[in-house]
Structures are given as C-alpha cells and as structure tokens.
Amino acid sequence: MGKLFVMDHPLIQHKLTLIRDKQTGSKDFRELLDEISTLMAYEVTRDLPLKEVTIETPISRTSAYVLSGKKLGVVPILRAGLGMVNGILKLVPAARVGHVGLYRDPATLEPVEYYCKLPGDVTERELIVVDPMLATGGSASAAISFLKDRGCTNIKLMCLVAAPEGIERIRRDHEDVDIFVAAVDEKLNDHGYIVPGLGDAGDRLFGTK
Predict the structure, then answer these.
(1) pTM (predicted TM-score)
(2) For 137-147, what is the mean pLDDT?
(3) Does the structure show a pLDDT above 70 at 109?
(4) Fewest beta carbons within 10 Å, which of 110, 123, 146, 198?
C-alpha cells in the first residue's frame, strides 16, 4: 500500500498559509508555489539511491556519494501543475519533464486525455506527478493510469493541498503510489472545491477566471 506523507515543515506551513490567503495576487502565488515545490521536492527525493565514488578535493582523494539508479522525471497535470515544475528542477536540473493534459467530459464527468508528451525513456525514470490540488482525485488517478499504460512503474504523486476524498481515490485506484502533500483539508464542497482549500489553483496561478 502506498504511503501518505504530510509535510509539516515550518517553512512549508508558513508559505502554505500565505498562498491560501485570497488577498495573495498571481505574482506572489506563483512565487510561493515555486518555493513550496522546492521544499517539498527535498522530501520527495529523500529515498533516491546513492553510489560511492572517488574524487579529488583540493586537499586529497576521498570517497563521496552521487545519485545512482533510475533518473528522475516530472509530470505536471495541465495546467496548474506547471507552477510546480521549476521548483523541482532547481534541485534536480537534469530531470526530464513530461506533460499530461486532461478535461472532464460534461456527460460522464470522467477525465479525458487531450495531450500527453513524455520523455522517450520515461519507463526508465522515477516519476513525480505534480498538481497543486488533489480534490476528487479523478484527474490524478487518470494521469497515473496513462503513465502506467505506457509502461511506467515507479510513480509518486506530489500535491499542495488534498481532500480526504482524493486521497482515498488514489489509494483505491493506485495502491502502489506514495502521496506527498503539504496539508489534508476538511472535505469537498458541493462544487468539488476543497474546503478550506485555496480556490482554483490554475486561475490564481495564471490570473484567469
């Protein structure tokens, strides 16, 4: 069963409070989302494997460690997930970035893929799927399914704020996927928004309505 990690680091919680505030404009929202993503990525990548190497410092030869094993991939769910990519790339600039675009069918209410562009070696990478909001979990579950359909096996989900309903959906559909969030909120309202949440992340990120 995949694990749920709630990151209670003081800097993450402080910046999360600022990003929730309805008075926070798009410029500050973008900057805060970028900063929180960097802080969260530090924890998400904690278990990346290392290998020992020998290097020359200005003083002597020594043993040290570098990343080993599978390379990293970041897959934002369009469009709000785009706001989390650069924060991760600051820590792991060699990571490749794929994109998954989804819309909700008005008749069935099910997510439908309209865009998917992934690195050629995506199946060899450890993937972090990113989206600020995990509400119903439908879009995140569908995105993870699309990746699995393409042969990907090592997937993590990183979100800013989650509703219990979204967490339960991911655990039900993808029991092998670990979930990383900054907060688990109270519930979803009748319109599918997280309460208290932070509103529509995409609109706040890009200044649209």
Answers:
(1) 0.92
(2) 94
(3) no
(4) 110
